[in-house]
Fold:
Amino acid sequence: MLSKKNPVILRTILIAIEIMDFERPFYILAIESSCDDTAAAVLDADKLLANEVAGQDIHQIWGGVVPELASRAHHQQIVPVVHAALTKAKISKEQLHAVAFTKGPGLPGSLLVGVSFAKAFAASLNIPFVGVNHMQGHILAHLIDSGNERPEFPFLCLTVSGGHTQIVRVDSPVKMEILGQTTDDAAGEAFDKTAKMLGLPYPGGPHIDRLAKTGNPHAFVFPEPKIEGCNFSFSGLKTSMLYLLQREEKARPGFTSANQQHLAASLQFTIVKILINKLLLAAKSTGINQLALAGGVSANSELRTEFSKLRERGFKTFIPPFEFCTDNAAMIGIGGYFLLKNGIQSGLDTIAEPGMKF
Ligand code: KG4
Ligand code: ZN
Structure:
């Protein structure tokens, strides 16, 4: 009776029963569109089969992401990117068991494209779908079966991206607690905004990283914020860089371009020091010795080096492969896998949540 009245519900129930066993194959299509990358991935349960990302160069000329342009670009790119992921995974859409998508946090217009596409796509195939928190996705990327060593629970994750800086205690894929976060700018923002002052293109993080390799990290001293507990503050760093450049440019025109690499190295040194010290504080207060890194800034070479050095102090460290550092859909797929496995799915009334918390 149920099947005749509502085949979507019946198929969803059947798939939910299948999920309890989680025998492979369990094909998940994942979609990520929270900011300026249109990404699609295909997983077989927790194993990654394809991970496609289309960036948006259009923002470079504006020195930052323009929300309306991002939304339009997602609109143009989402179908080809999903097609590319399915082709690479050698999966037809009829073979899919579920769809996962980024529900938030992110830019409203960008999220809307992914959420609408995912819901419509899943509904047309009569398969379940689930919205995933982008920040939790960054963390859960560590649990993708991609040949890497995976952390055991509980672990601490330092998540550093363009919009967020958090230290999260992870007790299970669905039980996480934020121990500290930024009270103003994110670490990625600190990289991007100061890079802009140095005349570098957007996003500035990778440019600072490259320039810093030839610079002296002790050439300039930037103040470290005095902020309680495991929280962060990076806005003072930006102001301090601005005042330094204004003062020196006035006294010695051409100072900025002549010292680009030293300014980049000193800034990077300060940001990395702040991040590592706060992570150590969190480790001390929780007694947890497994530490993971996540988010776009985890691609930073000095942060990776300093983080890895924590092994010498008795910590077990986990750094994601590069393809899982910046925004990608594999991390949303693994997040969706765990939610489905725990009996959580979304309904057609699900909407994008730009300010989504966890
Ligand atoms: O996680 P993500 O891809 O997007 C957000 O969710 O924000 O992070 C993007 C951020 C940008 O601020 C970018 O400058 C920074 O990650 N980033 C880096 C590096 N690669 C990307 N920052 C420092 N060094 C890098 N190598
Ligand atoms: Zn991100």
In short: The radius of gyration is 21 Å. The chain has two domains: 7-144+327-341, 155-320. Residues 1-5 have pLDDT under 50 and may be disordered. Residues 260-286 form the longest helix (27 residues).
